[in-house]
Write a structure and sequence with these properties.
This protein folds into two domains: 78 residues, no CATH class; 93 residues. 47% of the residues lie in helices and 11% in strands. It has six helices and five strands. Strands 4-3-5 form a three-stranded antiparallel β-sheet. A two-stranded antiparallel sheet has the order 1-2. The protein is globular, with a radius of gyration of 19 Å. The chain binds zinc ion (2 copies). One zinc ion binds next to helix 2.
């Protein structure tokens, strides 16, 4: 069974076909977009770690065929593989920016944070919470590097390449480390 799936994966890559995450249909183009449908939690990448998938109304990025886009009410656009990777890169960047905003100060608005602690950084005030946030950010950065490699391997230009150096400056400016450069 496993061997069969492996062969299928290789063939999908060679044929440059995309796979519907919901029903596994193949196509040259897929609808890539967002849905809040709880049923989509079963296959959405972002919900891998969701413990309760029965009522997840998070905004989920999915890649689906046209019939499935209708079923899961996906707000998206029909794109080829390169278009899909560009959207996924965008999503990854968006999540990293949210992480920056949080580290830069959103955490201070939490009701448990004492007023006098607001001048400090998150790793000083709550090392546990920082570690949690930091490992989430590391995972996003690893994902970013994978997406980056995909564009490089195919000699396709990376959309808005300047984003990366701005991100690195922001993170380093706050005194934290990043996998995306120095
Ligand atoms: Zn489908
Ligand atoms: Zn979820």
């Amino acid at each position: 069974m496993q061997e069969l799936d492996w062969n299928k994966a290789i063939n999908d890559i060679l044929s440059e076909k995309m796979t519907c995450q919901a029903c596994n249909a193949l196509g040259d183009e897929m609808i890539v977009g967002y849905t809040r449908s709880a049923e989509a939690a079963a296959f959405a990448q972002r919900c891998r770690d969701c413990t309760d998938k029965t009522d997840c109304d998070a905004r989920k990025l999915v890649v689906v065929c046209e019939p499935c886009a209708r079923i899961y009410r996906v707000n998206g656009e029909k794109v080829d593989e390169t278009g899909m990777m560009a959207i996924m890169l965008d999503e990854c960047r968006h999540n990293l920016e949210e992480s920056i905003d949080y580290l830069a100060g959103y955490w201070k608005e939490d009701a448990d944070i004492e007023y006098d602690e607001m001048q400090k950084s998150l790793d000083e005030v709550d090392p546990e919470l920082f570690k949690e946030e930091d490992s989430w950010r590391m995972r996003l950065e690893e994902e970013y590097l994978q997406l980056h490699r995909w564009f490089r391997d195919r000699h396709r230009p990376i959309p808005d390449p300047g984003w990366r150096s701005q991100y690195v400056e922001d993170i380093i400016g706050m005194g934290y480390g990043t996998l995306l450069g120095d």
